[in-house]
C-alpha cells in the first residue's frame, strides 16, 4: 500500500512540475511584454500575427471586462478553487496520462492568470492573430495552456467512452 501511495506521489509531482514550467513560461513572457511594450503597442510579425500588449480585466474573450472591479476578485477566487480541485484530481488520477496532462496545463495556466489578477488587476495578453481585418481576441501562454488542457480533457473523455 505504501508503495502505490509513493508511486502516486511521484506521478503527481511530474504533473505539478509540468504546471510549474507552464507557469514560469507564462510569467516570463509577460515580464518581457511589460518590459518592452506599452499598453496598445504592437509589432507586426506576419500577415496574420502581431505581438501586442493588451490588458484584460475580464475572463475569456473579455467576458465581464466592463464590470466595476468585482470581477478581479471573483476570477481570482475561481482560479484558486480550480487550482485546489485540480490538485486533488491529480492526486487521485496521476496515473491517467492524458487526463493528468490536461489538468497540469489548466493548472499552470490558471495560476499564471491569477498571479496577473492579483499583481495588476488584469491579465496581460500579447498574442494577436488576425485574418482579413478580423482580430481574434489577444491571449497569452496561460490561455493557450488552458485551451490545450480543455481540448485534451475532451479527447480523454472521448477515448474513455470509446473504450467502454
Supply the key terms.
alpha+beta; four-stranded antiparallel β-sheet; globular
Write structural notes for this entry.
By secondary structure, the protein is α+β, with helices and mostly antiparallel strands. It has one domain. The protein has 4 helices and 4 strands. It has helices at about 1-35, 70-95, 95-120, 140-164; strands spanning about 40-45, 50-55, 125-130, 135. It has a 4-stranded antiparallel β-sheet. Strand 3 and strand 4 (about 135) form a beta hairpin. The longest helix is centred in the N-terminal third of the chain and has 35 residues, at about 1-35. It is globular and about 50 Å long. The mean pLDDT is about 90.
Ranges where pLDDT stays below 50 over 5 or more residues in a row are none
How many structural domains? Answer: 1
Rounded radius of gyration (Å): 18 Å
How much helix, percentage-wise, in residues?
55-70%
